[in-house]
Specification:
Elements lengths: L4 H23 L5 E5 L6 E4 L4 E4 L3 E5 L3 H22 L4 E2 H7 L13 H15 L8 E2 L6 E3 L2 E7 L2 E6 L9 E2 L7 E6 L3 E5 L2 H9 L2 H4 L2 E5 L6 H14 L3 E4 L4 H12 L8 H4 L5 E2 L4 H6 L5 E2 L2 H10 L8 H13 L1 E2 L12 H13 L5
Parallel strand pairs: 5-6, 12-13, 12-14, 14-15
Antiparallel strand pairs: 1-4, 2-3, 7-10, 7-13, 8-9, 8-11, 16-17
Helix pairs in contact: 1-2, 3-4, 11-12
């Protein structure tokens, strides 16, 4: 699955080192334990220099001095053994498969009770080892996120390298982002900017209207809360190709958090923020001011929407004059709107007027 043998060997060696630490603790007469950052909201801090979420200084210890702790370490050892073997055989598996695979392990206490438990353990191993799950050859279920635009790439696959142009060599559905975007090499492009789009319906509208072709835009479908692979590719497009990144979402608090995860990282993946987040990304989604200006069709804010907006007023990711003004306006009007609400002004309004005007205001289009 991976063509980078050196990377695979390094990941396998790090796993074996972790298992060796448990053995050494046994040999020294110590109770085996594993220390990792406390994974709670109270231990997430916003690094203002890097503009991303990171773990704080508080740590927790997984110790075998209790039955519960011993079971957790047992599951960690079995998982480490499985991952090391997987790397040795150059195989891969999904997070879902790991959960089911554990049912075949000979020690019943090592088996996972649900997938959230196995997912959490893989994240623990990432944090402790400093190795990403992609380098363990672990992948989530397919997110289905796609890319469409003037970009030519070379992708490493288990069937050899493939060169793909993300307009000329794909259908209208676009190029599907692989689980590990670091297997992609950028060969050539005519891209002027990246437009990350929350919904599939809006992504399809842009492609059908030829927005990617007319404006040399690379349209990236986020598919709701974006997968790690999508955020990693977006960051690489910015850092390596120096492309401006914009995020086009619905006008509600949950969509603002989608923008926040692309730009500043998420609490869940705080240990990977510098690998996944693009702090330079800019919001181009539906603003409360757009709801008023364009008289868009709306839905009323629910109680959970209001609570989320009030929370965002205290969120370090939204501490700017723009966000304070927009969130307070939204609370005042009590409404939210979807991207597709722009169709109330015609199917071409979003590509002929809304996006070009916003992109010109940002200085991305001349």
């Amino acid at each position: 699955m991976s063509s980078d043998t050196a990377s695979d060997d390094a990941a396998r060696e790090r796993l074996i080192d972790m298992a060796a630490q448990f053995y050494d603790q046994f040999a020294d007469g110590e109770i085996p334990a594993m220390e990792l950052p406390t994974r709670s909201k109270s231990n997430i801090v916003f690094d203002e220099d890097a503009d991303v979420w990171v773990y704080g200084d508080r740590t927790s210890t997984r110790s075998a001095n209790s039955a519960s702790g011993a079971r957790k370490l047992l599951k960690a050892v079995y998982t480490i053994d499985f991952l090391a073997q997987q790397l040795a055989e150059d195989r891969s598996s999904t997070l879902r498969e790991l959960y089911y695979l554990s049912e075949s392990w000979d020690e019943e206490a090592a088996q996972f009770t649900n997938q959230s438990e196995s997912d959490s353990l893989v994240e623990d191993l990432e944090i402790v080892s400093g190795v990403k799950r992609e380098d363990f050859h672990m992948r989530p279920e397919e997110s289905g996120a796609k890319v469409m635009g003037p970009l030519k790439i070379r992708e490493q696959t288990n069937r050899g390298d493939r060169e793909i142009h993300c307009q000329d060599d794909v259908g209208q559905g676009g190029y599907q982002i692989p689980n590990n975007p670091d297997t992609i090499e950028f060969i050539d492009h005519d891209t002027e900017f990246v437009l990350c789009v929350e919904t599939g319906g809006m992504r399809d509208r842009l492609v059908e209207n030829g927005f990617d072709d007319e404006y040399n835009a690379l349209v990236v479908h986020l598919g709701g809360q974006p997968a790690r692979a999508t955020r990693r590719l977006t960051k690489r497009l910015h850092d390596e190709l120096d492309l401006p990144v914009t995020v086009f979402t619905d006008g509600d608090p949950w969509s603002y958090r989608i923008f926040g995860s692309v730009s500043y990282g998420s609490i869940k993946s705080a240990h990977l923020s510098e690998y996944l987040a693009t702090p330079e990304a800019r919001f181009i989604g539906i603003r409360p001011a757009d709801i008023v200006e364009y008289d868009l069709p709306t839905d009323p804010l629910s109680d959970s929407d209001v609570n989320a907006l009030e929370s965002e007023l205290e969120d370090p990711r939204f501490q700017s004059e723009f966000w304070t003004e927009q969130i307070e306006l939204q609370l005042d009007i009590g409404k939210k709107a979807e991207q597709q609400a722009l169709a109330s002004r015609g199917l071409d309004f979003v590509t002929d007027t809304y996006l070009p005007e916003r992109l010109t205001e940002m200085g991305i289009l001349d």
